[in-house]
Amino acid sequence: MEILAFGVTADEAPLLERAFAREGRHEVRCLDVFLGEDTAPIAAGYEVVSSSVNADLGGRVLNVLAAGGTKLIAQRSTGFNNIDLDAARRLGLTVSRVSYYSPHSVAEFAWTLAMAVNRRIVRASNRTRDFDFRLNGLMGRDMRGRTAGVLGTGKIGEAFTRIAHGFGMRLLGWDLAPNPACVELGMTYVEKGKLLAAADLVSLHVPLMEATRHLIDAEALASMKDDAILVNSSRGGLIDTEALVGELRAGRFEGVGLDVYEAEAGVFFLDKSLEAVPDDTLARLITFPNVLVTSHQAYYTHDAVGQIIEATVRNVGDYLAGRRSENTLVPAPA
């Protein structure tokens, strides 16, 4: 069987091809374009399609895929807020995801963002490229003794907390239920408002769903310390970006590190360097000297991508064998 994979990076393609080749039964055709309304017709005749995190898998796209003969959509990510699962059920499509990959990849990158904005690494690097070695405006802060607020203490949040503990920080957490491993590290669980008011560093590690959309809204931002650092390596929709821009224009926050953006689809993972970007909010966000925006790359390590690919291969095997697993979002019709 030949599998069609959308949104595959140049680094990912050989890994994906080798993983399926090891199975001995399948080949994979890798495309760098993302799955959406304009590209869905390419999948005609492919029983198995693999999508990336920024794919558009709304009802209209799923209709096109189903009409073209697709039976399985194997998404290469943990998040699945881009998939209309109800439409998939109606159309008899099987949908899978990757429920687990290295939490350290994302947690370590979240800390990379935090320290980069804290110690003004990008500004310093840009200066030294011009042989400007002044220290003016580069003063950061020690993390030891300060307070880390972790919103979401699952696997990634726990990994982030362990690093914060290593820095010698006071630990505050917010989640539906305490994580015993975080409690053992000394984390105190508090209400979201109390966490935001007390934390010097706030990092987001919760999934995006209706209950968490704009979890960090205007009210939440206003409750944070003026010199706090805010990091989001989870999903862009967790932050009300317009409200964030307003706070930044008022001169608030020591630094903001964002690996995700709520309107990133159609922009992130693409080269827009020769185009005028029509998103005024993103354009304004990037201009702030205390803001660092990266391109949804927190997961992008050899370890994590390898695990994502291996899980995708297993998901295809499970589908062909009629099995379900923890990765199955919509099972095959009975």
From TrEMBL:
<dbReference type="InterPro" id="IPR006139">
    <property type="entry name" value="D-isomer_2_OHA_DH_cat_dom"/>
</dbReference>
<keyword id="KW-0560">Oxidoreductase</keyword>
<dbReference type="Pfam" id="PF02826">
    <property type="entry name" value="2-Hacid_dh_C"/>
</dbReference>
<dbReference type="InterPro" id="IPR006140">
    <property type="entry name" value="D-isomer_DH_NAD-bd"/>
</dbReference>
<dbReference type="InterPro" id="IPR036291">
    <property type="entry name" value="NAD(P)-bd_dom_sf"/>
</dbReference>
<comment type="similarity">
    <text>Belongs to the D-isomer specific 2-hydroxyacid dehydrogenase family.</text>
</comment>
<dbReference type="Pfam" id="PF00389">
    <property type="entry name" value="2-Hacid_dh"/>
</dbReference>
<dbReference type="GO" id="GO:0008720">
    <property type="term" value="F:D-lactate dehydrogenase (NAD+) activity"/>
</dbReference>
<dbReference type="InterPro" id="IPR029753">
    <property type="entry name" value="D-isomer_DH_CS"/>
</dbReference>
<keyword id="KW-0520">NAD</keyword>
<feature type="domain" description="D-isomer specific 2-hydroxyacid dehydrogenase catalytic">
    <location>
        <begin position="14"/>
        <end position="328"/>
    </location>
</feature>
<protein>
    <submittedName>
        <fullName>2-hydroxyacid dehydrogenase</fullName>
        <ecNumber>1.1.1.28</ecNumber>
    </submittedName>
</protein>
<feature type="domain" description="D-isomer specific 2-hydroxyacid dehydrogenase NAD-binding">
    <location>
        <begin position="112"/>
        <end position="298"/>
    </location>
</feature>
<dbReference type="InterPro" id="IPR058205">
    <property type="entry name" value="D-LDH-like"/>
</dbReference>
<dbReference type="InterPro" id="IPR029752">
    <property type="entry name" value="D-isomer_DH_CS1"/>
</dbReference>
